[in-house]
Amino acid sequence: MTARRTLSGEAGFYALTPTCERFDVIAEPVTKLPDTHLARRIVVFDKDDLNRLIPPPSDPKPDARTMTFLIEETLRQAANFPTVIIRDDWLLGVVAVQQVQLFLYQLVVESNKPAPPTGPKQWSFKLTPYQRRVLESLPAAAPNEQSVRAAREATFAAFFRDAPPIAQHNGIPWPSYLEESVRTYLMKNNVPLPSPAAAI
Asked: How far, in Å, CA of 153 to CA of 37, rounded?
């Protein structure tokens, strides 16, 4: 068995048995139970009736700051693509595309809140059928120019199609100045982004 400590700053550990069962152990002081973030529990044994101290589950709404960061960071990182070309570093290009795809995933998951929390391996469960089709359809880039360019084009087309409506629905101002600056810079470097019209 292997074990690591700790879990998210809590007292406890997670372990993997020799036959690959995984379990997590978390210990909380009784005084901290009313403020615990682990509010969804199935009581197995509670001789002191401590479960009465656990607050009701609370599912947070979409966080505007998180979504703003994901949108702005996607645009900011888009401006790095000329570096891939100058250095002829298509592995860097692969990572850049993967990062934008991850940002897009995180953006749609955040926009789907409030939703019950799920385990770290429940990736597709957090998506609507449409979102899952979109994200599953994005090509994985291989470390060569043709593949990276194609994956980049498809990924940013999905971003410019789906991210603005998410921002609008959540009352988040679209960073038009940032987008225009990045578009202008990339156009000068002959690596333009898909136009919003082309992305629809």
From this structure: 40
